[in-house]
């Protein structure tokens, strides 16, 4: 057993649970270290600070989401199929990582001058750019979409994240029916 590695993983795991449940700003370093029975110097050794812990948490745990989103956003001349794959990818990640996705969503709306918002911003931008790039590519096939890629990316991302949020709160299921409903609803709006 590697105690240093285990304490690092434990700090990440417990910080995630605490940040998702209470918000980043509501949690102090002492609460995090108490949750796994280590001291503050252990956290500082691994991450340098509470912000360093958040930076590491986001970088390590969100990278699989962004790689999957970028893959799903590869446009293959079928908007509906691409949007379906993006929805499935997002919904699966939210279901498999509910605390992480809840934290990710909450950081979209953190105060714009907060360190948590600034830490999450590159991840939010990466997510948005993947969608925006897909809609730019689709505009080559669908002239009525030209110049609307940013609005479409924002609207689609907002819709999918809203469904994920509803599911994380127990109000809906993120199943294939929801994927079809989301894509149908979105497609009806952009092609009318």
Automatic annotation (TrEMBL):
Keyword S-adenosyl-L-methionine recorded: no
Keyword DNA-binding found: yes
InterPro entries tied to this protein: Homeodomain-like_sf (IPR009057), HTH-type_TetR-like_transc_reg (IPR050109), HTH_TetR (IPR001647), Tet_transcr_reg_TetR-rel_C_sf (IPR036271)
PROSITE patterns: HTH_TETR_2
Pfam families per the UniProt record, alphabetical: TetR_N
Stretches that traverse the bilayer: none
Domain HTH tetR-type, first and last residues per copy: 5-65
Domain of life according to the entry: Bacteria
A GO term, aspect molecular function: DNA-binding transcription factor activity
UniProt entry keywords in alphabetical sequence: DNA-binding
DNA-binding region coordinates: 28-47
Protein name: Transcriptional regulator, TetR family
The organism of origin for this protein: Rhodopseudomonas palustris (strain BisA53)
